[in-house]
Design a protein that fits this description.
alpha/beta; Rossmann fold
């Protein structure tokens, strides 16, 4: 009798695990960080942003520390949103800018800044809080990156780390996990880039180059 119950439970667990779904979470572009740029820090210069987000860890499956909804997968992608949101910041802070995948040739003929933006950590975490009548899907996201700034001769002006984190909830079932993670990811991008503006764009250190 005990073995029959064990077999039944094993089959039930297998069915539950096998019936899991994949819910994709994609962050969206945000223009909020650009509002933190000081007027006296808008520079009449060209900026080149070197990003390698496509080869970095910008798409991850969310970690699931709890037991509820563990049969499901929650892949999270911040690549496109991060790149376009960064572009809004740079477009607001400089007379012109472009994004490239590698360092350009040395050019000291016109004032320009080279920004290298490397993502060092991207950690999305999903959890679920069960309620009496319904539950709450919870998303927590942390992003960190290293920033290097060079002048036109590729002399390093500044190097620092920036980070962003955020939390978001969505009422409903396990399928709401993607909504919570997408919202948290978008907020984390905003937090990351706001810190980038405060620590880098608004910094007096950039002015020593020109």
């Amino acid at each position: 009798m005990r073995s029959a119950i064990t077999i039944f439970l094993g089959i039930t667990i297998l069915v539950v695990i096998s019936s899991g779904c994949t819910y994709q979470a994609v962050a969206i572009q945000t223009s909020v960080p650009a509002s933190e740029i000081r007027v006296d820090r808008v520079r009449d210069a060209h900026a080149v942003v070197i990003t390698n987000f496509d080869s970095q860890i910008v798409a991850e499956d969310a970690k699931k520390p709890g037991w509820t909804c563990t049969a499901h997968n929650y892949p999270v992608d911040i690549g496109s949103a991060l790149k376009s949101s960064l572009g809004i910041v740079m477009d607001s802070a400089f007379a012109s800018y472009e994004q490239q995948g590698s360092m350009p040739a040395v050019d000291s003929s016109t004032p320009q800044y080279l920004f290298r933006f490397d993502i060092r950590e991207f950690e999305p975490v999903f959890s679920y809080a069960s309620g009496f009548w319904s539950g709450t899907a919870q998303g927590n996201v942390t992003i960190s990156g290293r920033i290097q700034v060079f002048d036109g001769n590729q002399n390093e002006i500044l190097r620092t780390m920036v980070a962003g984190s955020a939390h978001s909830n969505a009422e409903g079932g396990c399928d709401k996990g993607a909504e919570a993670l997408a919202a948290a990811s978008t907020k984390a991008i905003a937090d990351l880039l706001e810190n980038f503006v405060l620590k880098v764009i608004n910094s007096d250190q950039l002015d020593v180059a020109y």
